[in-house]
Records
---
Amino acid sequence: MEVKCNLFPGGVRRALTMSYDDGAEFDRRLVGIFNENGIRGTFHLNSGKLGTEGYVSREETAKLYKNHEVSVHTVTHPYLTQIPDGQVLEEILSDKMALEELCRYPVRGMSWPFGAYTDHVIGLAEACGMEYSRTVKATKAFDLPQNFMKWHPTAHHDDDLEGLWKQFLEREFEQMLLFYVWGHSHEFSRNHNWEKIETFCRMAGGREDVWYAANIEILDYVQASRSLRFSGNRRMVCNPSAQDVWISVDREPVCIAAGEFRKL
Ligand SMILES: [Zn+2]
């Protein structure tokens, strides 16, 4: 019997997630495009900028990003590698707490302002409760990250999304594949290229063989998948997590429910 932990929820092998920074007012249009196409993602916000000119307001934050995840991008968007440790902690923890006040759920992820981090800064972010942080290094690949605190995306939206999406759908590897797009909504306004993201979302949305998820949902699912406990002969499995996990057994999808003990 062959057992592999290589499926996302619903037994699919592919997932798409979006990741947009800064909370500019153009997020309103971008969220609308995502919602129309059933695409989901994460918006990394600077709480110190909310409500100032060119940014979304504090009052609209919870409603606007309702189908998505709100996550930390620090209060004022400094280079975290260039400020004292205490200030790094304050920038992350105060942002987390301000966003939690608006959205009413624990905020657990972030993206690095300017993509800047060091291993030392990662330790400080983890001390504030951050479980993942996105970089700006596009890999053009579909692998899950080795280290979620250095979560490299697949592509920036200015990259060849259509070409990469085609590769993504054609790839036959027997592993979970993640397509991860990042950017800023103000770039579409500045570069007059909204049609770029509209075209991509129409093409990539609404598929039954793709799981559309926010960044934190990918992390939670991968952790649940990795937490499955198997007997030595793989005929018994236990899912100690709080969510259902899909595995393949002799190439057939099997759902191991949250908390379930199962003989395969
Ligand atoms: Zn930023």
Note: The mean pLDDT is 97.
---
Amino acid sequence: MDLVDLHTHSTVSDGTLTPRALIQYAKEKGLKAVALTDHDNIDGNQQAIEEGRRVGIEVIPGIEISGEWPYGTLHILGYYITKKDRLKNHLSQLQRVREQRNFKIIEKLKQSGIPITLKEVQHEAGGTQIGRPHIAQVLVKKGVAKDLDQAFHRFLKKGGAAYVDKFRPSPEQAMEWILEAGGVPVLAHPFTLNIKESKDLEILIAQWRRFGLKGIEVYYPEHTPLQEQMYQNLAQRLELIITGGSDFHGLNKPGVHLGTGYGNMKVPYTCVENLKSCWRRIEKGGNE
Ligand SMILES: [Zn+2]
Ligand SMILES: [Zn+2]
């Protein structure tokens, strides 16, 4: 059986392999296709595609967009991102809001008497996109918190002294951005939505389907066999396609392997075929 991995991260977001190295690694692992799905960023896709052509592996240009979800984590994967301009605008706006957020957090910390500067946080990030983990690291280094957990708990988490709300697109907006970019929106790892009843989940996903959702990520390292079965049934009932991937982050998620997750995940190539025909239908103009 030809195997694929449709959920991976590179150094463009929070993975440790560059887009090119990731594609080479996928080729070495014998995968037939791989999708690059960096968080809120499509900048690695071009390099990944070029490397794919060079080494002879099918590369799907993708993204993973974080949406607003009060009960847990909501991620929407987008596959075959081809019309980039408007999506890039949305993403750079998100980026600006995120930078402002870091700045506001630092201001709040200063106001509560903690001497911390943007420079220190940037230094901690070492040239990568700065975020709360880097602020937490500075707090630990300064001895303000004894470890990262405490830094988050006392200062950075909701309810903490320096918490600042984040801005994220709504799930519907995230799907719209992907559709606008000519892509196929797929719900990532449904278990992180924290919806216990499958009936409730079905109602929700049926609703998103009307907004343009095309698929569900069924194969995922952390899904139990029961969850996998449940999501598969759900996809079938709602006529959604099925995808899967490891959510590989390189050394940032040790133990999660490219292609196989914790070791026994298998994502068949038919997932790519179904994605591709869905994409072609969208291309033809029918949003169905
Ligand atoms: Zn995710
Ligand atoms: Zn991911």
Note: Strands lie at 4-5, 33-36, 58-67, 74-79, 184-187, 215-219, 241-244.
